[in-house]
């Protein structure tokens, strides 16, 4: 099976970066297919702890070809900064291909994102303010600027003019801001264009050829299934589809080529931003889980915001894994649960007094209460264990209960942030 998707089963931040980095050692291509720099993938390897926002997680391997596909929202400044940061770390220049069909996140998208969240005040969505929603809105309106346009001066200035026509009316009369000058935007883009020119390619053709040669390709999802605009917790969703099904579109490869779909889920839950979160743990319990979670606490990789935390939600995760079409599960952060004597997990929801195990329409989520099952903890450090069978019995019981509840085999279990802290489960 040559094409594998690594995707999130939950709200994002499941540890996809770590899983992709781990699997990338045996792959030829790593591809980002949607989203932009609005989320971070944290990787801990021989270079230390690195957070990637836009670059694919294969950039640490000199043999891996990394692709930013047509479906990605490309912030040129972020891309250049991440490349510079890698160079400063001493990582050899990655083999990177940026699709000439990908569209560019313009500074005006960031500005619109911020102004709109400020206007909404208490009703804001909790956007990372990376310009992603205004970017995808422009794409739908067909007034975006694409990478290929950067190298065609007349076309670029025409595209910018069209893009700014309506926005400037909104800036001046809606947000009471000065208008944006297309000439200033044009020269900034041209400066960035010269930096990324060596990486620009027809990645669709490259990947089609790679598929036909049977090369190994990893498709790296951003955020998680519950953020999907169609299937997720709308309106607290993102603006592009994080589903494995969309990977075919956003990367430009045949849908039937994706044979292995790894849904990544944490052994507990985290969620950044606003929206319903049925198993949320508040107060001291929540702060403890936040402090002991992830790698040095559950704080957003992009914004540094405290992540909302809660126990594992089998209802939401089974749904998330199903809409991903998961063929297997990678369970991360199991080590975090080592502190507790007893570990609750939600096995159903109660809505209007009725118990259900199917994920409801998001319009009903605010009324859902979790139905808990409690498993015994193991209260011993498991982060140095490298063989699944060597885990304490209670830890294996936990993994196998998750597997039962999801109805999908768990194949990878992560017991720490570092690359080597990974157990294979047959
Ligand atoms: P992604 O966007 O899905 O790649 O996830 P993030 O990088 O935003 O968040 C995952 C967090 O969990 C990061 O801080 C990782 O370093 C950390 N992490 C990943 N796997 C493990 C694990 O098994 N144990 C612990 N303790 N931390 C992990």
Please render the helix and strand layout as text.
Elements lengths: L2 E6 L7 H9 L4 E4 L8 E5 L2 E5 L12 E4 L4 E2 L1 H14 L5 E5 L3 E2 L2 H14 L11 H10 L11 H22 L7 H15 L3 E2 L1 H10 L4 E8 L19 H8 L6 E9 L2 E3 L11 H10 L15 E3 L1 E2 H11 L3 E5 L9 E10 L2 E3 L12 E8 L16 H14 L3 E5 L7 E3 L2
Parallel strand pairs: 1-10, 1-11, 2-5, 2-10, 5-7, 6-8, 7-9, 11-15, 14-16, 15-19
Antiparallel strand pairs: 3-4, 12-13, 16-17, 16-18, 19-20
Helix pairs in contact: 2-6, 3-4, 5-6
Bound molecules: guanosine-5'-diphosphate.
Number of strands: 20
The proportion of residues in beta strands is 15-25%
Low-confidence stretches: none
Write down the overall mean pLDDT: 94
**Order of strands side by side in the largest beta sheet?**
9-7-5-2-10-1-11-15-19-20
Quick one: CATH class of the largest domain? Alpha Beta
Overall structural class, as computed from helix and strand content, comes to: alpha/beta
Q: Which kinds of small molecule does this entry bind, naming each only once?
A: guanosine-5'-diphosphate
- The CATH superfamily label of the largest domain reads Adenylosuccinate Synthetase, subunit A, domain 1
What Rg is obtained from the alpha carbons, in whole angstroms? 22 Å
Number of domains: 3
**CATH structural architecture of the largest domain:** 3-Layer(aba) Sandwich
Head-to-tail CA distance between termini: 17 Å
Tell me about the biggest sheet?
A: 10 strands, mixed
The outline comes out as globular
Q: Share of helix among residues?
A: 25-40%
């Amino acid at each position: 099976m040559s094409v594998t998707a690594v995707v999130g089963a939950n709200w994002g931040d499941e540890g996809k970066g770590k899983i992709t980095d781990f699997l990338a050692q045996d792959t030829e291509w790593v591809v980002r297919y949607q989203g932009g720099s609005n989320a971070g993938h944290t990787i801990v390897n021989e270079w230390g702890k690195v957070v990637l926002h836009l670059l694919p997680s294969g950039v640490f391997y000199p043999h891996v070809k990394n692709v930013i596909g047509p479906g990605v929202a490309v912030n040129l400044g972020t891309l250049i900064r991440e490349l510079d940061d890698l160079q400063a770390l001493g990582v050899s220049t990655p083999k990177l291909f940026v699709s000439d069909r990908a569209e560019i996140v313009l500074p005006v998208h960031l500005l619109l994102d911020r102004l709109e969240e400020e206007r909404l005040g208490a009703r804001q969505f909790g956007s990372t303010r990376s310009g992603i929603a205004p970017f995808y809105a422009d794409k739908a309106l067909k007034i975006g600027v694409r990478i290929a346009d950067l190298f065609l001066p007349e076309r670029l200035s025409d595209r910018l003019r069209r893009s700014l026509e309506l926005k400037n009316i909104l800036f001046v009369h809606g947000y009471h801001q000065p208008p944006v000058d297309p000439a200033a935007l044009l020269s900034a883009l041209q400066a960035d264009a010269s930096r990324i020119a060596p990486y620009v390619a027809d990645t669709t053709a490259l990947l089609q050829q790679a598929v036909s040669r049977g090369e190994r390709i990893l498709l790296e999802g951003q955020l998680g299934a519950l953020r999907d605009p169609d299937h997720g917790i709308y309106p607290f969703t993102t603006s592009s589809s994080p589903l494995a099904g969309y990977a075919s579109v956003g990367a430009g490869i045949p849908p039937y080529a994706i044979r292995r779909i790894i849904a990544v889920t944490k052994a507990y839950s985290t969620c950044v931003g606003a929206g319903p979160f049925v198993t949320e743990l508040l107060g001291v319990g929540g702060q403890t889980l936040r402090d002991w979670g992830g790698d040095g606490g559950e704080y957003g990789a992009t914004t540094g915001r405290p992540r909302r935390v809660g126990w594992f939600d089998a209802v939401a995760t089974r749904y998330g894994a199903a809409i991903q079409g998961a063929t297997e599960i990678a369970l991360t952060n199991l080590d975090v649960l080592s502190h507790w004597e007893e570990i609750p997990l939600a096995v159903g929801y109660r809505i209007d007094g009725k118990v259900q195990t199917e994920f409801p329409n998001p319009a009903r989520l605010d009324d859902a209460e979790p139905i808990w099952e409690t498993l015994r903890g193991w209260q011993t450090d498991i982060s140095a264990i490298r063989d699944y069978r060597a885990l304490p019995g209670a830890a294996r019981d936990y993994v196998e209960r998750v597997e039962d509840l999801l109805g999908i085999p768990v194949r990878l279990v992560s017991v720490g942030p570092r690359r080597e802290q990974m157990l294979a489960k047959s």
